[in-house]
Amino acid sequence: MSTDNEFVKKRAPTLYVIIAIKLLKGLLFLTLAIVAWALSDNDLPIEFQNLLHLLRLNPERKFFANLAVQVGKITEVNVLWVAAGTLVYSLFSLVEGIV
Fold first, then answer.
1. DSSP assignment of 82-94
2. Would you kindly state where each structural domain of the chain is located, as residue ranges?
3. Fewer C-beta neighbours within 10 Å, C or N terminus of the chain?
4. What is the mean pLDDT of the chain?
């Protein structure tokens, strides 16, 4: 004789993996939003040159020279918009992982 109390709801173990992925993705994009916000008032071409030097890449190569020109066109307002959009996206992932 079985009763309804004997049945225990089991959650799939993959559900916890999905939750962990959502939370990690949300934290990653939250971190990226904070970094973008912190870099918004910096001189991006100089930061780009420092990054190339840190990675020991040749900044005189045509690809990196063209990329430096494009980085120079980025304005502070554009970076702040990217930071705001990334923050909103990260909040969606965090809410999905929590709820």
1. HHHHHHHHHHHHH
2. 13-98
3. N
4. 91
Please determine, for residue 2, whether its predicted confidence score (pLDDT) is greater than 70: no
The number of beta carbons lying within 10 Å of the beta carbon of residue 98 is: 10
63-72 residues labelled b (16+ CB within 10 A) or e (exposed): ebeeeeeebe
Give the per-residue pLDDT at 3.
Answer: 58
Chain-centre distance of CA 71, in angstroms?
A: 19
How many whole angstroms separate alpha carbon 75 and alpha carbon 71? 9
C-beta separation of 22 from 91 below 8 A: no
Q: How far is CA 89 from CA 16, 18, 31, 40, in A?
A: 21, 17, 12, 19
The H-assigned helical ranges of 1-99 are 13-39, 44-54, 62-72, 76-98
Instruction: Give, in degrees to the nearest 5, the angle at Cα 59 between 54 and 63.
Output: 125
DSSP character for 99?
A: -
